[in-house]
Backbone:
């Protein structure tokens, strides 16, 4: 394996495999959605004063630089930690010795607040080639998000989204150290909520039991129809949720998204409708049921596209992380409503059912 | 909103929103799983020679440093690009002027090969506080993965996993620039594959149509049973797939994972079994069907736990990205097999069905 080329370990390369878990632990009593920037910021930054001279800092570099990495910025603060500006290390290294920090520092800069939520800054940081960001509150420097802190924040947000998309609460510690009891607790909440929502399908089917009894072959297609509806909806939400997390899609795109998704769903509906008719024909269930299956397939596909593109947007609007619209969430929603569509179409087409 | 604190744009902060799309484009004719390190490596590195003096490099810093960030390493290569060593920028800055690069360079270092797949290096890089890595082939320096290249690689792998988990092929360009035809093409492949797999449920139900006809109330619980089985399976795979992507879980943990998941599934099965019995009791379907539903609920939960913990591991073993085991994949698999479990239990319990 080519991986062996990674074997030589330079002593300086620190790999804090579980450091993200510590951040999660600090936060574990909070709502999973409310991890703040303050949980990630570091106190490892180089502070200088406006009146320091370039020569003085340069001569002190060996003491100032703690790790192997050279920070891009030095932070210019006063004795009360008011952040006056940022000084590019590059500017410092290439400036002449007699200059003062105040001559060469930068007075405009990005900053974030320690109270901002991780989700909020994720989309902003994820694409940006930002090396480090000061964390500022009331003009005072509270800490710094270094490159590695930003990477950790992004990784944790991605992990949380991955867990939410699987309809389970995020784990606070790495998987292998999580006990079955904790896993059960993390999962059973969502599972029960989905169960309650899904239980509605029983009510729907009972309501249509007369139709079912007079055409039992309608039952053959129940898993296929609702399954396909759930699958096509899942495709849409997973794409949208990721695009929203990355900041590519926001609420103001709702119209464009709906247009795009409904157009796409017509293409998908045509494809899947034909395949559905073919499947019903193979099962030899008569032309009426075949027609009902084909039409329902198309209707459910379009319906699930509408639902799956609107719900993540609405949640975003309500300030709920759209990542909770997981595949199981969409599938459950489509199951109940899809069955109603199915039997209503059946009642329309199959005259002896109505 | 607190986001306003991010408004001031320092001119040096480059935010190449779509730069990752370019990398994807270069690769779009390849299999989605085979994006290589070479697609991410950069030629922006500082090359020095063994015989350069510290003074010479220091005096030339203003020309050498291209961006604002100060690279952690300089790369010591000869005229044929053989990589002789790495020189810490910090060491350079704090060494006395008369020394040569060969006196202070580091001869042991991490490296990756340009041919390594993105997925392979993802788990290794994700947790590590690695600033930059040389990309080396036959001892020659081919390029460098800088911090921002590593971040981009990680982000793209996360995006691909998010799309695969939604059972859709990854997009090559940002969502808003993707046409409905492309979206259709990306989605319909998986959708049809899932349709074909799911179509099996029709065959199963047709095979059990006698049982269905004699106890139509069995049909009421079909979506609920297979839906819950799919949901509990999805919870497991999504957690496992993420843990595997992060390198927390590997094949050698199979035993431990199975033990953990099966223990958990017994707890979940007990909970969900009770709720299932309660639901059947509310729908007033008789004690036999109620018992069948409760037992099936438990059996399906345990069955889906076994399936969902083994499949991602097996795929990893076959060198297939386990992220393709999406919620729809698991749901489809559980749907068919879950129905068989359901009707076999029904035939055992309900003596008049057998």
Residues:
């Amino acid at each position: 394996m080519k991986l062996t080329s990674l074997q030589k370990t330079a002593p300086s390369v620190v790999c804090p495999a579980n450091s993200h878990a510590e951040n999660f632990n600090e936060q574990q009593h909070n709502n999973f959605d409310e991890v703040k920037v303050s949980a990630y910021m570091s106190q490892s930054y180089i502070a200088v004063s406006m009146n320091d001279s370039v020569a003085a800092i340069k001569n002190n570099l060996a003491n100032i630089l703690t790790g192997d990495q050279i920070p891009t910025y030095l932070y210019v603060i006063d004795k009360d930690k008011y952040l006056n500006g940022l000084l590019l290390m590059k500017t410092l290294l290439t400036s002449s010795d007699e200059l003062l920090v105040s001559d060469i520092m930068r007075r405009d800069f990005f900053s974030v607040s320690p109270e901002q939520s991780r989700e909020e800054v994720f989309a902003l940081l994820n694409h940006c080639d930002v090396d480090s960001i000061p964390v500022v509150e009331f003009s005072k420097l509270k800490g710094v998000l270094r490159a590695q802190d930003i990477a950790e924040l992004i990784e944790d947000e991605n992990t949380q989204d991955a867990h939410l998309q699987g309809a389970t609460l995020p784990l606070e510690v790495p998987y292998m150290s999580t006990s079955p009891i904790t896993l059960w607790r993390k999962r059973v909440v969502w599972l029960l909520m989905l169960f309650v929502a899904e239980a509605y399908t029983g009510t729907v089917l009972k309501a249509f039991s007369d139709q079912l009894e007079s055409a039992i072959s309608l039952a053959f297609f129940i898993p296929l129809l609702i399954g396909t509806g759930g699958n096509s909806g899942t495709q849409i939400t997973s794409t949208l949720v990721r695009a929203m997390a990355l900041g590519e899609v926001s609420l103001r795109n709702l119209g464009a998204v709906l247009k795009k998704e409904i157009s796409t769903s017509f293409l998908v509906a045509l494809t899947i409708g034909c395949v559905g008719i073919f499947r019903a024909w193979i099962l030899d269930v008569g032309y009426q049921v075949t027609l009902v299956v084909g039409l329902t397939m198309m209707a459910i596909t379009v319906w699930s596209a509408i639902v799956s593109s609107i719900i993540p947007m609405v949640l975003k609007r309500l300030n709920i992380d759209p990542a909770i619209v997981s595949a199981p969430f969409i599938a459950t929603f489509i199951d109940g409503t899809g069955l109603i569509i199915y039997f209503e179409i059946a009642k329309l087409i199959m005259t002896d059912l109505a």
Chain A has two domains: 37-116+133-146, 187-353. The two ends of chain A are 65 Å apart (CA to CA).
